[in-house]
Amino acid sequence: MIKKQLATAISIALVGTLATSPVLAEEKKPSSADEGTMVKLIDALYENGSIDSKAYGALRLSAAGEQPVKKEKPLTPEEKKDKAAKGAPANITFKNGFKMESADGEHSLELHGRIQADSYNTLSAGDNATTDRFDIRRAYLYTQGKLYKNWEYLFVASFQGTPQMVFWDMNAHLWDEAQLKLGQYRFPFSINESTSSRNIDFMERALAMQFIPGIDRGAMLHGHPIQGLYYAVSAVNGGLRNNPGLKSTGIDETSDVDGKDFLGHVSYNAAPILGHTDSIYHFGMSGSFGRQPTKPGDANYQLRAVTETNSLQFFHVDSFTDTNVDLSRVGATTVLANGPLRFTGEYVNNNFTGNSALGQHFDRNIDAYYLSGHWMITGESYAKSFGKQNAFGDIAPLRNFDMKGGWGAWELAFRFSHMDASDFKAGNAAGTGVLSNGFANQADAYTVGLKWIINPQVRFLANYVRTDFNQTVTSNNTKVNSEDGLNFRTQINF
Questions:
Q1: Which residues of 145-165 are buried (b: 16+ CB within 10 A; e: fewer)?
Q2: Calpha distance 9→296 (Å, rounded)
Q3: Is the separation of the CB atoms in 324 and 283 below 8 Å?
Q4: 92-105, pLDDT tens digit by residue?
Q5: pLDDT confidence tier of residue 80, bands split at 50, 70 and 90
Q6: C-alpha–C-alpha distance, residues 250 and 257, integer Å
Q7: pLDDT band at 2 (very low <50, low <70, confident <90, very high)
Q8: 184 - beta bridge partners?
Q9: Where are the alpha helices (DSSP H) in 96-222?
Q10: Contact 459/491 with Cβ under 8 angstroms?
Q11: DSSP one-letter code for 411
């Protein structure tokens, strides 16, 4: 038995050497007799079971002077995609902006812009209380896209007034369930604030939106664990842009207080899981806690509010005199829609607690909310424009305006807003939230809006706004108890 195994091994080694040696192949080719002998030897080895069929086939090919064909490993789908993409040109398209994307879909760059040209006209409140004017409300250029599929970025620059960066952030989108955003961004505290100014319901956001977190710098963990559910938790600097009623000196401040603000949000839209694709059943809650930036005597750090015409300041509070003022906020949101009909309501409470420089304790609240109703006269569905991240996107007309029977999309809307800051009184102790002379601490606003969306890039808005104050407001030496404004906007975006 041992002799048989040894003979087999020697025979296979000899055959392999003769067949594969390039030196022997070049110096001396085997004769027909040699080839016949090798074939007989290989046949004998196969017949007595010393080699299997796979080895037998390979040795026969070697004996005939041929080499077995080496099979290449099959490519994976990802490798096939990479091979096809190499050297392929980038795809350039236009849909609500210019987009350039690599052939493999891994990288993209989009270029967008927005111009909002407004006209503000006061119908009452006295000739001198406000100023009628034309204005460029926003002029943005921005770019967004992705790198290696999962690394998303956004840069938004504003060019009305002093040029500055509005947003700049990077979002690590490795999983839908858990994404990490870093940079300067807007926290999704409310529907009205989270929705881009390109798509907001009226020309200006509701009174309540002046008292929720705004733009700030920090880190945010957010995602969609299950269908319809969205959450976000964030830690931010807590600077001017992130606090209610403050007049920002720009968007370049870092942290105006020691410590950070912490924010949380959770919302759920039940319509998708119920299969109601033409509806929205959305409910959300938000909250935050941190410090209110204070600088005694600095007007930029004094609470304030303006009307929804963006023309008249009606609420103003003298400075807090202590630098340790705690601020907590609670907000609630609901959106109910079916087809071209929608109802939206949001509420926010701001609580300020602390002590004056003289040790006088205070606990002040600002409550604000709005209710709005909307009707797409031309039949467009609101559900199609509602995004996963607590915000509305573009409404695309069923048929663009084209002078050939297309009328674009028309929307009629009404909003009621209420703000109650009655805790801030003129008689409060100094440094504890004193209402400034000539201002009101409550207001009700009624807005009727008509919107004509020519196409996804062009729209016109007309808003009539009536605001009633609980006490006389003095502006430009003119005393008023209410304001009526008629405003118009022309908007172009790409």
A1: bbeeeeebebbbbbeeeeeee
A2: 97
A3: no
A4: 888 888 899 998 88
A5: low
A6: 16
A7: very low
A8: 168, 217
A9: 191-194
A10: yes
A11: E
Residue 187, token pair as written in the block: 């926290």
Task: Give the C-alpha separation, 466 to 468, whole Å.
Answer: 7
For 391, the token pair is 């915000």
Structure tokens at 424: 């801030």
Q: What pLDDT, on the 0 to 100 scale, is given for residue 72?
A: 60
309, with CB counted inside 10 A (0-12, 13-18, 19+), is buried
* Dihedral pair phi/psi, residue 404, rounded to 5°: -130, 30
**Which residues lie closer than 8 Å to 488 by C-beta, 6 or more apart?**
118, 119, 121, 460, 461, 462, 463
Question: Residue 304: which of 248, 355, 230 has the closest Cα?
Answer: 248
Q: Which two tokens stand for residue 410?
A: 């028309």
pLDDT in tens, 373-428: 999 999 999 999 998 887 899 999 999 999 898 999 999 999 999 999 999 999 99
Instruction: State pLDDT tens for residues 247-302.
Output: 443 333 455 566 688 999 999 999 999 999 999 999 999 999 988 878 777 777 78
Lowest-confidence region among 12-16, 98-102, 214-218: 12-16
Residue 84 binned pLDDT confidence (cut-offs 50, 70, 90): low
Contacts of 71 (CB under 8 A, 6+ apart): none
Residue with tokens 């096939």: 80
Q: In 262-396, which ranges are continuous DSSP H helix?
A: 271-274
**Tokens 């559900």 identify what position?**
383
Question: What CA–CA distance (Å, rounded) separates 105 from 93?
Answer: 13
Q: Which residue has the tokens 């406000």?
A: 130
What structural domains and CATH numbers belong to the chain?
2-63 (no CATH), 107-493 (2.40.160.10)
Contact 107, 145 (CB under 8 A): yes
pLDDT band at 6 (very low <50, low <70, confident <90, very high): very low
Where do we find the tokens 């573009």? Answer: 394
Pair of tokens at residue 465: 């706004």
Query: Which amino acid, one-letter code, is at 40?
Result: K
